[in-house]
Write a structure and sequence with these properties.
With 462 residues, this protein is of the alpha/beta class. It has two domains: 4-225, Spore Coat Polysaccharide Biosynthesis Protein SpsA, Chain A (Alpha-Beta Complex), CATH 3.90.550.10; 243-439, 3 Solenoid (UDP N-Acetylglucosamine Acyltransferase, domain 1), CATH 2.160.10. Helix content is 17%, strand content 29%. It has seven helices and 39 strands. The strands form six sheets. Strands 13, 14, 16, 17, 19, 20, 22, 23, 25, 26, 28, 30, 33 and 36 form a 14-stranded parallel sheet that branches. Strand 8 and strand 9 form a beta hairpin. The longest helix has 21 residues, at 231-251. It starts with a strand and ends in a 23-residue tail after the last strand.
Amino acid sequence: MYRFASIVLAAGKSTRMKSPRSKLLYEVGGVPIVARVARVLRELEIEANMFVVSHQKDEIIGVARSVLPQAEAVDQGEPLGTGHAVQCALPGLPDWVTDVVVLAGDVPLLRADSLRRLMDMHTRVGALGSFLTFVAADPHGYGRVLRDGAGEVEYIMEQTECTPEQLKVTECNSGIYVFCRKWLNEAIPLLRSDNKKGEFFLTDLIMLAVDKVRVPTITVPESEVMGVNTQMDLARAKQLAQKARVRRFMEEGVCFLQPDTVELHDDVEIAGGAVIEGQVSLRGATVIESCAVIGHGSVLENARIGEKARILPYTVIEDSVVRSAARVGPYSHLRPGSDVGENAHVGNFVELKKATLAAGVKANHLSYLGDVTIGEGSNIGAGTITCNYDGKNKFHTTLGAGVFVGSDSQLIAPVTVGDGAYVGTGTTVLGDVPAGALVINPKTQELRENWTPPYDRERKPD
């Protein structure tokens, strides 16, 4: 019976990123790169996972454990090459491990199916070592896979060690391997650092394996095993991940009006029939149900949008729900904890925060509704404010069903307005209002006929 462990090489300093932040913590599709690798290992149900860390080690292992809670870490200290990293990790693997997957932590587009195929082939033929290869459009910087006349692997030659003829080879090493654990224990001490970089190369293990038995390989697309070493690499990885997600959703019936302009995180779900307009950003675990429309320039994070709901342009929705056939926007802001009911309307420059609007509620203009529950069919006039904060504490406002709130009104929380009550225009509601009542702040109107504005009055002589 074969039981796998993984060793993830995550100790690099990320110097080519020109940033104090480790490249493994940058996100692709809304997920940190090292977490994307951890998700692959989780999908493969690999039982033991060892992350070799150094630079920003606490942050990296913290992200890895958000996906693989039982992941272990070993500090490589001063990195002396990939072979040295595996030397550091091996003693920490459980005794029951029969085979070891070794991969870099910076391959955000790696697919679990490809790694599974490699693992299956490795165990099927009883290999000492196996690895993924790719054919590079530009092989500069990659280790070359050198084969004999029969097409079998002879060497993996690092770029710095290649002859001019070997540099012409375009088949390259991905840096993703599977090794027999027993043989790996025997072979890893044999690695030497007498090369131009003075490092221990894991690729030398392949030459040791070739001396004993055939080394099988599987070739995958270059994009799948691309590493992220520069900001340009990061941008390309994001673009490739994005295109793949958009293509999948389009195949499932989602309409993207400007597919190249959309930001789409990995955990987003979109049902067939939905329409996504240009410049839209769908982040986190956002869910878009069938036939919903997301308008141009809108940003949704951890939002749930119901069937046939319409989000008009330039709306921001965070950690909130918009239910079936509701309409929100343009230029609305739904802050966390808001819930817009079926057929409700939230319009221009309306901000919600922890606001629950029942079915059919209308708040179409220029209002702030925070810490509030609004009953079915109520109407909120332009310029309404729920005054929920006294400088120290937040308080709740409750409006019943069928309440009418006139424009430019303020409701001083905590306050309750009963079903069918009417709040007159410009009213400051200071206390509870019974059902069916009218609440107003009486004002008098003063009229001055034949009034001349100050700027039209003659200036009096000094």
